[in-house]
Input
Amino acid sequence: MATSGSTPPDARTTPDNPDVAAVERYLTHLQDRICTALEAADGAARFRQDRWNREGGGGGRTRILTGGALFEKAGVGYSDVYGDELPESASAQRPELAGRSFRALGVSLVLHPENPYVPTTHANVRFFVAERQGAEAIWWFGGGFDLTPYYPRLEDAVHWHRTARAACEPFGAEVYPRFKGWCDEYFFLPHRGETRGVGGLFFDDLNEWPFERCFAFQQSVGDHFLPAYLPIAERRLGTPWGERERNFQLYRRGRYVEFNLLYDRGTKFGLASGGRSESILMSLPPLVRWDYGWEPVPGGPEAELYADYLRPRDWLAEAED
Amino acid sequence: MATSGSTPPDARTTPDNPDVAAVERYLTHLQDRICTALEAADGAARFRQDRWNREGGGGGRTRILTGGALFEKAGVGYSDVYGDELPESASAQRPELAGRSFRALGVSLVLHPENPYVPTTHANVRFFVAERQGAEAIWWFGGGFDLTPYYPRLEDAVHWHRTARAACEPFGAEVYPRFKGWCDEYFFLPHRGETRGVGGLFFDDLNEWPFERCFAFQQSVGDHFLPAYLPIAERRLGTPWGERERNFQLYRRGRYVEFNLLYDRGTKFGLASGGRSESILMSLPPLVRWDYGWEPVPGGPEAELYADYLRPRDWLAEAED
Output
């Protein structure tokens, strides 16, 4: 989608050049497919869409569903931004990018279910390319998905990670443990000494394989999100809940806010580089509480989350022993 | 208060050395006075106190009042931390501090009233000193107070700033405009293009006057907080409110969270340097909402906040014209 501003970098389909048009097709269809499936799973509410343009070039379409039967708030965004020159904040860390035109495309989603027994989740697939006349294109893929339960079930964590492993398997046996480990490391709140949830996959700067293979991996991650999440949501949606569970969910959502505003690179970079605030912050939960000094009742299900789920674990080895 | 760890830097009362013991006395009494006055104003709930120790030296006493008649959540913290050597994160920006023992004392408060017609407020007074045998002490004061209304009244902003000016007046006519301007600049959310509220005073690194004068200024700021805030709270507490006002308050509290986690130096530095998370994050509101793409109804009182109050204004010149 090229909505405004300067011309997007040329996307010739030669072995030396990334096929950006194919990435664009994949990502726009992924957003459509995911929104359709989430509406079907919700059964009550529909996404509404905001198209937006970026002053420097490009834009996006942000889709939000609120007040559903399953989702209190679901945000699925697609963005495609480009420009003749990278913002200084982006090239400061990577001087080789200075003076290049760039294009950054991605789908990013965060789902906040209403029922505290249904986990919150986040997924993202993105592609970046920087070009200069007479030089090879610099490009990479990034993305992943992670799961944040409130009342966790071991079988859900195992299903989640089995699906993550299945997404990685065609690309080598070392891929799942590597990106699973990166996810544990990335979604960590040092001031709480907690992971954000049970993890999943996280990768960035992926360009070590040929473009076609990297792109195939991105598609595999994107395609495995729904089969990873929907069975868990469907299994837990019927569990009755009350004020206790709701309060705990709202309290734990505070950690989600803390992570996204204190540590998440996408959020910080997006806001610092003049991204569309409402689209970047669509990840924030609809309702959140902070309770000073709150501690779970020992032996209760809330204590189990802290004791057994908010640290890196080898879910699959444990399940398959 | 010296609760644990290494010995606090010596506080001799000579013209060359800051009287740290006097600062400590002032700050501990200020916390007491403020808590007593806030309990009286609330009339229903009491503060509970957590004493805590810092591993590297020092500690604090965090006081929280929740579920009151006036305050949904009020946090008033005192901390006094010291050590033989500054954390690297602190001396990286100021190489002259490297290898010095340090002591940092402060009172910090955030009040979240339940009634959306009563503004949220924050105040802070702090002192820092770094010493080394045979060298002059390096010290400075910082602090200020700022007001964040939801349904603002011009007369409240004027009273707030008159009191702020009164706190500054004995120290020179240029002091109020300077620290008022710094406050507007500091409490600004660039990604929203909004100030956090109607401002007040903000100062940091204050050591340009002799110690006694700087300390007197800190006391004047600390002493003017209650007369600045309580008359406003008392005037607005009786205003009836309903779901509309409550929703707007919860929504606007999201901006408070965004500021504190994205930009506030004290929060970021505190968490990065291993401070006590619950004490640092006691500033966060008890209940918060985020609504994607929310806009105030044109012409309504919520629109007035955006149009007239979330930008730097010379409240006193306008009032006295």
Notes: The CA atoms of residues 199 and 254 of chain A lie 18 Å apart. DSSP finds ten helices and ten strands in chain A. The mean pLDDT of chain A is 93. The interface with chain B takes residues 50, 62, 64, 66, 73, 75, 190-192, 250, 254, 257-258, 261-262, 268, 271, 277-278, 280-282, 284-293 of chain A (CB under 8 Å).
